[in-house]
Model the fold of this input.
Amino acid sequence: MTKKDLYRQILERYKEIVVLENIQGLANWDMEVCMPKNGVEQRSEGLALLSGLIHDRWVAPEIGTLLTDIKQQPDYEELSTIEQRNIYLIQREYDKRTKIPKELVTTLAKQRTIATKDWKEAKAKADFSIFQPSLEKMVELIKQRAQYLDPDKHPYDVLLDNYEPGLSMKIIDQLFNQLKEGLIPLIQKCISAPNQPDLSLIKRKCPIDVQQKLAADVVKVINYQLDAGRIDEAAHPFTGGYYNDVRITTHYSTEDFSNGFLAVLHEGGHGLYEQNMPENYKYQPIGSACSSGFHEAQARFIENVIGRSLEFWGFYLPRLKKITGNIFADVELQPFVHALNRVSPSPIRIAADPVTYSLHIILRYEIEKDLITDQCSIDELPQIWNQKMKDYLDIEVKNDAEGILQDTHWAWGLFGYFSNYALGNIYDGQLLWKMEQEMPSWRKVLQKGKISKIIDWLITNIHKQGNRYDPLELVKEITGKELSTKYYLDYLETKYSDLYQF
Ligand code: ZN
Done:
């Protein structure tokens, strides 16, 4: 077979996997959005079979043979950079899936079910000791998994690299320490400033049908395509899909429209990324997102940088007033935007504002790192957690349910994942800095409602790059600089000193 034949065959196999994954995504979406309650068992059967089929396709020996054969072709180097990147990405995933013995994959899947059940019970009873034994087992299995993936590398580095390729403890330690040093005093300045926001400007009863109208309006404003997507409701908002069918979800609260509204912008940011992937590379690895951190960065850019800005509300507040009737008739721009940007430390990560949010992540990162490197024992965790909450956010955690047991990630074995959320914020700071260089008038542009210009900048510079580069390379490619927290911290300092007037 020629190099071209081999390449075509590899991509054909990859396309089938993507198609199967799309069906899997749709079945998951349906389960979260509209499946009847009694459908759970049938759906689990279907999903288990599908993930088995997808796994079998990934580990098929034929893929291994095709990859070896193509690399042995004397003219392999003549493949374009893009073709070689596709081969590299498929090899990377193939290695990840084949290096782990099937027995460990099965044990992990079973442990996930046990740990999730124990976690739910422990959280309901606010008692960490119920979750402790299954968490211990999970940490052991995750360490074994890291060992199989790369025995020569530090296990936590293996886990970090698994979710955000190229990132390591050395890099993240430095970034997160800088972030911590910048954020803790900034939060103090915000909460002790005399000029505090008036939350009654946003916390007003707003019927769900009115909020649905707002959602349908604002997705049009950000250029999310409704003929290639849709908005539904889910308990925990999420986005799923591929190119021409990318669906977002939100969760409305009748007491505070901003929860559902900002979730629409957040998920809309994820949705825009998927809808604007490079069309020429559909069904190829390169035609997918760069990383989960970059995905988060797209969502947070739309939600926080755009959706919580004075300029956005400069043009959107009149529209909000029109759509919501007399609910917000009396509010004025500046105090309204200040209320949307309130800084208020909370024990719960998912309820955190953009300034305190990264500290919730840093705390989890530090604990995970100590756990995986055996720097602390599992029974000490609640105490370590509570102490860090006190040190970083000055919060007294009342019980394990609002402390160490609040997230499901560890029951799922997702160690090394949390850091992506804060990395997304750091990426955003640097992307915004670059956008400002290229479009110094972006705030004026936004204020006039010409948001398309900003979305187009994101599409050209980020979305259309697909998975051409690993995240740190992509940051460098776009901004010309190494990743740094400076830009994000500068952005926050300027924004919040204006809002709180310090
Ligand atoms: Zn997100």
Summary: The pocket of zinc ion is lined by residues 266, 270, 296, 299 (CB under 6 Å). The chain has a mean pLDDT of 96. The radius of gyration is 23 Å.
